[in-house]
Amino acid sequence: MRPFVWGILVFGILVVIHLMMWRIRRPSGQYVGLMLLSGIIGSVFIGFFLWAGRFHPKLSLLLPTTLFELFSFLSLYAVLVLAHISTYSAIQADSPTFSILLLVHQTGGSGITRQELESILGDELLVVPRLNDLVSGGLAKIEGARYVIQPRGIMMARPHIYFRGFLKLEKGG
Amino acid sequence: MFLLTPFAALLVCVIAHVSLTRVFTQMYRLKVFVYSFLAGSATTACLTVLFHFRVTPPWTDTLGYGGLWGVCYLCLTYCYFFGFYNTGESARRIRLLIELDRAGAKGLTLAELLSAYNAKTIINARLDRLLSSGQLIEKEGRLTMGVLIALRIAQIMVQLKILFLGTESEFGHAAYNTNK
Asked: What is the structure's pLDDT at A173?
């Protein structure tokens, strides 16, 4: 039970610190910053558990201290962090699906036509910002007036190309 | 061995997902997702029971580890479906990278990229999904709300945006104003 409780607790602490730090000042490399923060918090607590296990036997009754418990704590914390990062990427960028739903909802019962949707959600809102993300993230670069994929971009694109090909699915997007 | 329970369950889930997608090509994707998820959940449950009888810990420990592995499995499948599979399905960044990858070293101009992938394509793909799942209804050329599940998730995401980023949208509050 201890790894379960501590895994949830430490993850909760991470979310609170993430929230506070990002509201004060968002780092330019948001995902690297978030991973670094997660690593630091996880390491601090692992260190604390090891220290308490060795020097404070009474305190260690409340903490994960055996190898089995520490690994369980770490795997729970790590997967919660991964899920948090996945969710954060959805929070950070606007989803076109959600934007459509919110726009339709805003109109009340009168609804909206496809043309009206297209006039609000144009390329400058749906495509250009994501293209800029690729450039600022080093996944693509601009050479003259052309966008050229970079090795990091290839590393990100190819697994999806192969996996979707293996699943016999068409191009996504 | 039991430490790897959630990872074994994820493996079962991925194998089930890949097999079902390849074999039943016409099956609704949400259905494939649910069946695959259940296969992995059953694996987690079986391994937890096996853990109890093989290691014989107190019931509280079995419940604690069962809960921990359950949450781990849930997070792993969430990462697989939403962080990996769904990004290939609907993420614009991945689709743009795929277009650029196909173009190779010569790259593409903005106009060339937009001729292959643009706002209209994006909107139509989403509308197809939203209409087929009943989230939206199209009547006499106008789109209105259908089932409200996806809308509620969208509203939660807006609240999370406000919480983490201090704004409703990455483009500011008025970005999606229908009155403009």
From this structure: 65
Query: Residue B5 corresponds to which tokens in the numbers above?
Result: 């329970």
Predicted pLDDT at B172: 61
**Residue A12 buriedness (CB in 10 A; 0-12 / 13-18 / 19+):** exposed
| Residue A127 to residue B136, Cβ atoms within 8 A | no
Q: Name the band, by pLDDT with cuts 50, 70 and 90, for residue B179.
A: very low
AA identity, residue B87: T
Please state the domain extents for chain A: 2-92, 94-121, 127-173
Mean pLDDT of chain B: 88
Residue A142 three-state SS = strand
How near does any CA of chain A get to the CA of B55, in Å? 12
* HSE of B179, CA atoms in CB hemisphere, 13 A: 3
Per DSSP, what are the bridge partners of residue B145? B136
What is the three-class DSSP state of A163? helix
| Contact assignment for A79 to B117 by CB distance below 8 Å | no
pLDDT band at B145, cuts 50/70/90? very high
ipTM of this complex > 0.90?
Answer: no
Q: Among A4, A105, A167, whose Cβ lies nearest the Cβ of B151?
A: A105
Fill in the amino acid letter for A83. A
- B63 pLDDT more than 70: yes
Cβ-in-10-Å burial (0-12, 13-18, 19+) of A58 comes to exposed
Predicted local confidence at residue A109, as pLDDT = 83
Query: Is the Cβ pair B107, A147 closer than 8 Å?
Result: yes
Distance from the Cα of A45 to chain B's closest Cα (Å) equals 18
Interchain contact, B91 vs A98, CB within 8 Å: no
CA distance B16 to chain A (A): 12
- With beta carbons under 8 A apart, name residues in chain A contacting B108: 146-147
